[in-house]
Amino acid sequence: xxxxxxxxxxxxxxxxxxxxxxxxxxxxxxxxxxxxxxxxxxxxxxxxxxxxxxxxxxxxxxxxxxxxxxxxxxxxxxxxxxxxxxxxxxxxxxxxxxxxxxxxxxxxxxxxxxxxxxxxxxxxxxxxxxxxxxxxxxxxxxxxxxxxxxxxxxxxxxxxxxxxxxxxxxxxxxxxxxxxxxxxxxxxxxxxxxxxxxxxxxxxxxxxxxxxx
Length: 213
Hints:
Blueprint: H1 3-25, H2 33-40, H3 44-52, H4 62-79, E1 86-87, H5 89-105, H6 112-145, H7 148-156, H8 159-187, E2 211-212
Antiparallel strand pairs: 1-2
């Protein structure tokens, strides 16, 4: 449980009132909330509810599991060496195939092991973004709950107060969105699907091609 988990249940009725006021009365022309509403496409309470529904520890352990798989691939690539005593075309074909498979399995970023490790790092970044987002939004919700605008909204249903509260919440949400997009941009192209190219099959030239020893 984090700060948003503690703040949101208390704030939920208040946020519903903010959304109801905006839906019923709108906001004055030129109010800062209008561009934020157009950009985010959601009311303040909806934004807070959506982020509050994301479990703060939903990715805990996921990156560790992926790194264990990556390490396993690295070990497997090292555990299946080419038998030194094999000779002949069949042995050459096996060597070509295993070289291609092991090269796809491990040994660099463009391998299965490398892609799993990158995916684990990406999940770490997403988990960190989620924690930052929830912490920032919880702080903004707490500020709104203790504001003069909150008193005005509760006392008289002041529509301007509701719009000002909504703008403050949506401004934080916009910053969170920008942070998430920057994270996405940093990872663009780094997690694309890998393709495996098998070696061309060897052409048999007769019987008795394999020699051992």
